From TrEMBL:
<feature type="domain" description="SsuA/THI5-like">
    <location>
        <begin position="54"/>
        <end position="262"/>
    </location>
</feature>
<dbReference type="InterPro" id="IPR019546">
    <property type="entry name" value="TAT_signal_bac_arc"/>
</dbReference>
<dbReference type="Pfam" id="PF09084">
    <property type="entry name" value="NMT1"/>
</dbReference>
<dbReference type="InterPro" id="IPR006311">
    <property type="entry name" value="TAT_signal"/>
</dbReference>
<dbReference type="InterPro" id="IPR015168">
    <property type="entry name" value="SsuA/THI5"/>
</dbReference>
<protein>
    <submittedName>
        <fullName>ABC transporter substrate-binding protein</fullName>
    </submittedName>
</protein>
<dbReference type="InterPro" id="IPR027939">
    <property type="entry name" value="NMT1/THI5"/>
</dbReference>
<dbReference type="GO" id="GO:0009228">
    <property type="term" value="P:thiamine biosynthetic process"/>
</dbReference>
Length: 340
């Protein structure tokens, strides 16, 4: 069964990461600064990497939306897609957001995992370079080095599939240089690659340093469940009210992000205080222009199909777990109905 884990992530390594994550989430813990009422339900929440693709989460926290729904969110960044789902499997997180393929892999190998919503509805990656010109044909990557996070992170997966579908041979025509998630831009600027596949706000920061966006993955791929809300069936069974509250809060936050871009920019500046404000504002403008944050928490079949088709192509999954088996839209549908 372990053959169906992505290369480098066999069952033993996957469980090892789970055990580590069970001891506690890593990196960038933060909680909402508002005063907590004693009645709030504590939610341990893991995000794969702190980035502006998850702006709906941050808007919900800073606007008090999660608190309004009775939740005290304790959020930590895990350092990657595998690590964030491992935190849920290990019990140190109630929910995780990241590449929902991790839940699919778990289910196909006899483990647990349910996706109850979408947080990022498009591939939130941009090709960024200081030497290349903008292109639309992936064949233009021939002879280039491209830096991404390691397999099985999503920016690696979308890049590999794009290269191979263009008829190029990975390792011969195009070389992928894997680096730690979040350091792609730095590696490109240091000359390790011609192009970085990265996300906001790193992209806008790179543009401020003279680099430019040369490729847009969001429109190239189309609707895509880039980031899902993952949870264990046992959590749903034990506390469906908490799950409903969280999903409803995400639905409300998603609407707030698009309805009030100025507030989203204010939140983004607070979440990334080390970046110039104008850089953060530009990043949010790009996120909303390309419809990257989910407009609704409901996971749509076409979004899921595009994700699964990619992972099937790459050999990361078997495709034996159907949409209705792994996607539970009941909480999202109820949230939409409740909010009108």
């Amino acid at each position: 069964m372990s053959n169906f884990f992505p290369k480098g992530v066999d069952r033993r390594n996957f469980l090892k990461v789970t055990a580590v994550a069970a001891g506690g989430l890593v990196a960038m813990p933060y909680i909402s600064s508002r005063a907590r009422a004693a009645t709030l339900k504590t939610v341990n929440f893991s995000e794969a990497v702190h980035n502006l693709g998850y702006i709906n989460l941050y808007v919900g926290m800073h606007d008090g939306i999660f608190e309004k729904h009775g939740l005290d969110m304790k959020v930590s960044a895990a350092g990657g897609d595998t690590q964030t789902f491992a935190a849920v499997l290990g019990g140190s997180a109630d929910f995780a957001i990241g590449d929902a393929t991790m839940a699919q892999i778990s289910r196909e190998n006899g483990g647990p995992g349910v996706v109850v919503g979408t947080v990022v509805q498009r591939a939130h990656y941009f090709g960024v370079s200081k030497t290349m010109e903008p292109f639309t044909d992936p064949k233009d990557l021939k002879g280039k080095k491209v830096v991404t996070s390691p397999e099985p992170n999503t920016n690696y997966s979308v890049t590999k599939r794009m290269v191979e579908q263009a008829g190029l041979k990975l390792g011969t025509d195009v070389t992928i240089v894997p680096v730690n998630p979040g350091t792609e831009i730095g590696a490109m600027l240091a000359g390790q690659a011609d192009m970085a596949v990265a996300y906001q706000p790193s992209v806008a920061a790179a543009e401020a340093q003279g680099s430019k966006v040369v490729f847009d993955f969001s429109n190239y791929i189309g609707p895509f469940c880039n980031t899902g809300i993952m949870v264990l069936p046992s959590t749903i069974e034990k506390d469906p009210e908490m799950v409903q509250a969280l999903v409803t809060a995400f639905e409300e936050a998603s609407r707030k992000t698009y309805a009030d871009p100025a507030f989203a920019k204010k939140v983004a500046r607070l979440e990334f205080p080390d970046l110039p404000g104008e850089v953060v504002d530009k990043a949010i403008d790009a996120e909303l222009k390309y419809l990257i944050p989910a407009q609704s928490v409901v996971t749509k079949p076409d979004q899921w199909k595009n994700l699964m088709d990619m992972q099937l192509y790459l050999g990361n999954i078997k495709g034996t777990v159907s949409f209705d088996e792994i996607i539970d839209n009941s909480f999202a549908d109820k949230a939409v109905k409740q909010l009108g």
